[in-house]
């Protein structure tokens, strides 16, 4: 291998226990098991945790890792593991980043990360968010049909050998690892300077590389809200049977009781709805209805809005499952994404009465707003912005990669979902297209005032950007 010209300003850092606070990667394998396979594998891996911990305690870390890897991925399509690594793991990795170690790591021109997990699990996050040049981890054995066997490839060489190959005749300048970090810290002997937590200024290279901004994770997927550490995973598994019963009861009650009584039912069954601002009263719709423009957090946004207003307001939708369609207590208007066809549909509904639309076109879980489609601004000047936030304890109710028919079940399974709606003032005429404003300017203005009300950030990302990142498609 050719030597690195930047080795005098290079760093090799362990991922677990250094760049991440948690030295144990077990919870990330739990995520792979749950999101790529399901509850059975998730439960089996949790039952294996005492044996893994014992092997690790007696110094048999390699065997503990091999056992964990086998149970977590054996028989899975490697594309499924890649999908979880790209769409699910980055959010949980980011929440666990050690900013002190990150600052030191980011000051060097050449950055290499060593992980005790399979490279495929960490590579997407480490390269995209930590801006590493290379990732060195274990390599999974994949059969000719594209399935992971669960075994680790022993022919690629040791961690230390592979790090040495990256630098050729030179030595990396700084090594960041725990001295007792096992195989993942074996590269330390190659480094000119070795640093251990807590890190201090004396370990910094004299010529610092410009600090790279640690960018947030805006798009992520998966059902679980919290990283499934063994204790969290156990609580989750114990709750699921009760959660399913709870969800069925909530769905039945939501379908049979009158709209005006639903807010009381939500409170009795553990949910919370917080309303800020003054909801508009019911008005005569002889001249058409108003358009409620909302940011999009879950598939239930328009339903909750209808509950607060105590009337069934139709909602514009882009793609919901047939199960959600059947269970929906409000009418839905399916758009085609053919602009002139959709415009006519929305106009027709507005002539009948009020309508709800989420111009982002897809949900966003993080405190960001995606770019608003300008279609709504072209169709009416009677616009009421509504800022929506949602918090859950266990489950995300909507996913991109998951089975959408399960979305309502996961929403109602959460023990304590909380919605917060903020009704803003109707958009003044001078801020609408009827005052000769450009539709894109109106859409951006509405996006901005909603973001301000929520304390969120506006972005230029679109629905296509989200799908391209999470599943590699523009769907």
TrEMBL record:
Membrane topology: Multi-pass membrane protein
UniProt keyword terms in alphabetical order: Acyltransferase, Membrane, Transferase, Transmembrane, Transmembrane helix
Originating species: Nepenthes gracilis
Pfam family, one: HAD_RAM2_N
InterPro entries, alphabetized: HAD_RAM2/GPAT1-8, Plipid/glycerol_acylTrfase
One BP annotation, GO: cutin biosynthetic process
Domain of life of the native organism: Eukaryota
CDD domains named in the record: LPLAT
Name of the protein in its database record: Phospholipid/glycerol acyltransferase domain-containing protein
GO MF, any single term: glycerol-3-phosphate 2-O-acyltransferase activity
Family note: Belongs to the GPAT/DAPAT family.
Transmembrane segments: 28-52, 233-253
Protein's cellular compartments: Membrane
One cellular component term from this protein's GO annotations in UniProt: membrane
Domain Phospholipid/glycerol acyltransferase: start-end pairs: 290-391
